[in-house]
Give the backbone structure.
Amino acid sequence: MTSLRRYLAGLSHEMTPDLSWVKTANVRSELVSGQVGALLVIPQAITFAYLAGVPPVYGLYCAVFVGFLASFLGNSAMVGGPNTAVSIMLSMSVMPYAGRGSPLYVEYVLALSLMVGLIQLVIWLLRGGEVFRYFSPAAITGIKTGVGVLLITSSLEGALGLGSVRTQFFYEKFYVVISGWGDLVNPCAAVISGVTVATGLVLKPFLRRTYVVFAVLAGCVIGAGIYLYAGPVASNLELLGHVTFHAFPFMIPNLTAQHLQFVEEVFPNAVAIAVLGLAQSLVIARDLEARTGPVNLHKEVFAQGASNALAPFCSTFAGSGSFNRTSIALEMGALTPLSGIVAAVAVVVIAWGLGPLLTYVPMPAIAGILAIVGIGMIQRREIVPLLRNRVDGTVFVLTLAAVSFLGLEAGLLVAVLSSVAFFVAGVSKVQLLISEEDGAEHIHVKGNLFYASFDRLARHLRRSPAAHTVLDLSHVPFCDSAASDMIESVQKLRARHGGRLDVRPSSSPREAPTNAGSTEGRT
Amino acid sequence: MMQTVARVLCALVVLGVSVAAAARPTIEELKSRKVLDDYEANVVYGYNIVTDTSRYAARYVGNRLQCSNCHLQAGTKPHAIPLDVEGLYPKWRSKNGVRNGLGLRIRECFLYSMNGIMPPEEAPEVQAVSAYIHYLSEGQVIGRLPPGARVPMVPETGEDPNPARGETVYHRICAACHGPDGHGTAAAPPLWGPESYNAGAGMNDVRKAAGFIWANMPVGNENSLSPQEALDVAAFLHLQIRPADPRDGRLRKLMERLVHRVSELFGATQ
């Protein structure tokens, strides 16, 4: 009963927005980082809407509404909203059922997003966030670095005006670009993205907070120059286009029998998207924990689920936490959810005020920002220490390779598996210190004793049934019932053969086997 | 033996093609269907773009026209630039971003006729219109100009088009619908001004415009203009102020003019 009550109290605590940051937030740095975040999210939102196959304005709605809800309901500086992997998976799931971009397709995307949000809420009720406590920091760095590599390669198309080049692995794209340089690359696009990236990289050491803004501006100025000089036909530049924004796109999503049938058919995809979105968000949250202090993972799971379930009611699609926008926000001094909230509001202001200007923002400049962000996510000072450690190095390299070669989904899976594997390996390591004292053998055990780890100890104890052994468990934090059973059975075995096994209890009283059984046997 | 097999195969293919052509569902039928495959959904989306461009392709549109203002009856009316012309272009699906004739043609109408932004080849809007054009072109012979394609040639009148006479024709017949200032009314789209097609558009070509007007205007009383009247009014439209041709780089024109001026000045002082 009390555990149920505790569970329910936890749920209601996680459901109520935690506004304690109101008092502690450094409002100025959060405002600046929120506004830069808005500038950054607008082009990304439009790109990701395009990836998801829905009209560009839906991406903005996602940045505003999903971003706002995720920050408002959450308890960390994580920036939510439209996300590459989620967008791609949405479009891959819906594509077999409706024409990309058609009205039916859009309705399906919304229905699927609703489903994803509901599944995430179920995961929240089941305390699924626990799993992510086992993520090792090495795996998180591996994912971050891999996402950086993916961002750089995926920005190549837009940056060089390639059109869509489909390759199996990321490095092939470089090969295609280099071998087909003359035919494929649009020089105007390459100049614009080159100027954007160069400006960003040059300014980064001096303007840690605002270099992205200047990089975009430089790209836009060069782009405008080229566009005006050569004209739209000769320059063949891809532009952002008209951004229309209705203030309150609230609606009830269309859910007829046809939509429900569709949702039923893509249910496995919905689960995959829900898990993928959560995995990304929680990896970010774990990363944040190391930098800004404790984060309640369950609360973040609730925030993600609720914002995604509400997304279709704001005419938009599901999102998740964003690696790159969160890292930019952190770099500019954000510590609380306030920056995410400011970013969401600022998107509205910018889209209204700058809509006509945004029309002519060249896409290569936007691709350039993605490349800068990708470069920024590959951090030498995080990677080098990992490589010095054998276990961390292996986990890091494995996840990095999986993300860059097989994509983020596979990378998250490898990260989970390898962190769990090394966690188990670490936990089940048991040290036996064996010494002789007054004719009795003393075994000092260090480590956890449980079904997977007591094998060596059991073999050692069974080898000489007639000996007298003192088993010192004072450095055993955890001992499960299988291990206690094993110890008891050895005690019985010794009693039969005239030997003895004395146990010094473990420091944790609840799970330790006691001496009671054996003393009773002797008296 | 091989020949018979080949002949049977040919017959089957022909049969299949004719069955497919006969069974082509109308847009209304497609719209009322519960489940559409990728191609059919794209066809419907393409139809929506052609008939309600400013809503379904807002990202790339720069004026108040719809595709169907010129491609009349959603691109099905003969002699009004019908869109059943896929056979004149390479195939529907573009692979690996290789420029494909039809896609480029669609993108050009966005840039010139819609005075907008050129969408990329892979834009869903372009793919959808391509699908719609493919749908309209089913059953046509590849490479042959379909009957009623484009606009008719106005017969030679032996006289040059005269914009002054065209102006009186315009105010006598066209202004009732298109407005005395040509900026359009609720009944008809704008013919010039900032919300119309730009100077690079096909409709800004006097011969093409004359053919279109001769065959299709005024709505409800087509073919009532004489060839000479059509040419005159087309020449009048050609002289009106409209958005500039996007092929000209504005900055380059400015610089060329500056260089010209400077060299003239130098020429004058020498």
In short: Confidence is low (pLDDT under 50) at residues 509-523 of chain A. Strands of chain A lie at 431-437, 440-446, 468-475, 500-504.
